[in-house]
Write a structure and sequence with these properties.
Two copies of one chain form a homodimer. The longest helix of chain A is centred in the C-terminal third of the chain and has 20 residues. By secondary structure, the first copy, chain A, is α/β, with parallel strands linked by helices. In chain A, about 45% of the residues lie in helices and about 15% in strands. Chain A has a four-stranded antiparallel beta sheet with strand order 2-3-1-4. A four-stranded parallel beta sheet of chain A has the order 7-6-5-12, sandwiched between helices. In chain A, helix 6 packs parallel to helix 7. At the A-B interface, helix 2, helix 3, helix 8, helix 9 and helix 10 of A face helix 2, helix 3, helix 8, helix 9 and helix 10 of B.
Chain lengths: ~375, ~375
């Protein structure tokens, strides 16, 4: 793991050593008297480099045995108690290859999501069904409009739970029917991804219904549900591609590339939504590029996942986004389509057309 | 909900309004055209007060309908997307009484944990089995020592997972036997709380075994497992008091009193561990007092939970801690006992005796 530690030069070695102990044995080194614990459990400070004024970039190697190959325990070793220490930030997560293999990563990956959407190359388009408060039929009407416009993936807003005024199953049925009507008309079948949320038993019931009723993917917010829940969904139970939403994942103490890039991918997200710069959220272009890199780069044996920049993008920025990310991306635009009001179909067609045009340009 | 928003005076109203929309409909107000959505879903800014230079304390009321009475969705409404906006901090969570009733809070509460420990009044004592890396018998020997010394609650370190060198069930069996041996010798039975961790199915299996083999409580880290997992554990399945650990719960963007005080209690923790000031973590005395207040104060119909200050407390501070918190507290001291090395029993007896003495003093 790589951390940023704020400390004076005279203190940083002691702080790094304290962190290596805190994240494993939670005891001063003098209390560790067992040779197996000393050798196979205690973290080791690998390197300390200056990282700006009053801070250092510190790499700590934890023996793989500490993690029990368990997603919750890996998270604990990486940043459990450290998250309570304000001078420490988690910058990168680099578990050894055998642990990556055990945890497994995405079941489908970017390529699997492309297969589900029937678009094997070039940028995909995505939008969200909203607002929270509408009933299943009203949301399904929007779903049909987006599907007719040629949007590849249509997901629920992540705030759509099992509300009395919009039950999960009623919404799923209505939106699936809408997708089929549009497919009959256009010859292309969009992916519908319902939002599954709640405690684990409820989530499992919702996913079982989603699979039975032909949803093409699911939307989950791993930080709301728990990261180990993401891991379980990606490896047990019905096999549906997972779009991961970043809700409740903010705060400056875990680098977004480590959380949304490394950990979301490691635990099984096939595509990861995050705020692109210049929208309603404050990420920098550099942060967004780092997230996309962590999701897409070679990290054997894990499949690459698809970056899904979002968060207040205007349709007019589609070409710019394609230039920034290249073709291996899914653009998620919601509010900017809804602003068209009654012209939702035309605006959505415009979104799809501009992404296709930008992709063509990129190919030339 | 109450937030702190960093903004200029000229901007704060617009930012507060944007937040009320972000957390519910995720659309600009102009796009919300349905009267039900406008009336029953969109958040309302209730008050804006200055909170120091360049910041404001903003109360937003969300209609209860937004939450679907679901723990994951309540978290999402409270701080889902807002967590990604660096100018926003969540200060307090105040769901309406009917929603508190639905979510239920602690199944046992402080009183239930006291019953399990056989200590109906005065401060309780608690310690941790460590370090990670020891086998079941070595940890059980420490467990027996602590139980003989009169410690009320003996928990696993939260890093103890289902490791190959220390299987969950082997540890549980060994520690339960140790507790019984000590009980035979002293006439008092300590509570043993094993650490349950992993993805939901694994956690469920571990808790089933813990209940079957007579554990008196369980230790969970809700931020590692997922807050909705805590809610499920507290309301379905075997009924064991829950000690909640704060691992992975840090970062400055949710006030510790809102997270460890309000949310942990609301979702069902019977006792909550958090870093006391002056130890290895940087919380202030004021923050610690606010956490304890949120756990203990009247918040109908929820049972009070027990504050468990921890994180590098020396045995010598026991009296000071009792003066700070009064009798309705459990003091968790780990490392400071282990520093005694071979004198672990004597040091643990000293811990228990000093807490009892401080409590007596407080009563006089």
């Amino acid at each position: 793991m790589v951390y940023r530690i704020e400390a004076a030069t005279s203190e940083v070695e002691a702080r790094a050593e304290a962190l290596a102990l805190e994240q494993t044995v939670e005891l001063p080194r003098g209390c560790v008297r067992d040779p197996f614990v000393e050798r196979e459990i205690v973290g080791r400070v690998e390197s300390i480099e200056p990282d700006g004024e009053g801070a250092f970039r510190v790499a700590i190697d934890y023996p793989a045995a500490t993690t029990a190959s368990d997603p919750a325990q890996l998270l604990n070793v990486a940043f459990g108690n450290a998250s309570l220490q304000e001078h420490v930030t988690l910058l990168d997560v680099q578990p050894p290859a055998p642990l990556r293999e055990t945890l497994g990563g995405p079941r489908f990956g970017a390529a699997g999501l492309r297969t589900a959407a029937g678009r094997l190359e070039g940028p995909l388009t995505c939008t969200a069904l909203k607002p929270l408060g509408l009933g299943p039929q009203a949301l399904a009407a929007r779903c049909e409009t987006f599907a007719r416009a040629g949007v590849d993936v249509i997901k629920d807003d992540h705030g759509l739970a099992d509300h009395p005024f919009c039950r999960f199953e009623a919404r799923l049925l209505a939106c699936r029917a809408a997708i089929e009507r549009a497919a009959d008309a256009t010859g292309r079948r969009a992916v519908y991804a319902p939002s599954v949320t709640g405690s684990p038993d409820r989530v499992r019931r919702q996913i079982d219904r989603a699979a039975a009723l032909g949803a093409g993917a699911i939307l989950v917010a791993p930080m709301l549900l728990g990261l180990p829940v993401l891991h379980q969904l990606a490896h047990d139970g019905p096999a549906l591609p997972i779009l991961a939403h970043p809700a409740f994942g903010g705060g400056p103490r875990v680098a977004p590339s480590a959380l949304f890039g490394r950990l979301f991918r490691l635990y099984g997200a096939d595509a990861v939504i995050y705020p692109h710069w210049g929208g309603r959220f404050g990420y920098s272009a550099r942060t967004c590029a780092a997230i996309a890199t962590a999701l897409r780069e070679t990290w054997k044996p894990l499949r690459p996942a698809l970056p899904v920049p979002a968060g207040g993008m205007d349709v007019e920025r589609a070409a710019e986004l394609v230039r920034f990310y290249g073709g291996e991306v899914m653009l998620l635009i919601g509010g900017s389509l809804y602003e068209a009001g009654d012209a939702l179909l035309e605006r959505s067609r415009g979104f799809v057309a501009s992404v296709r045009a930008a992709a063509e340009e990129g190919i030339e």
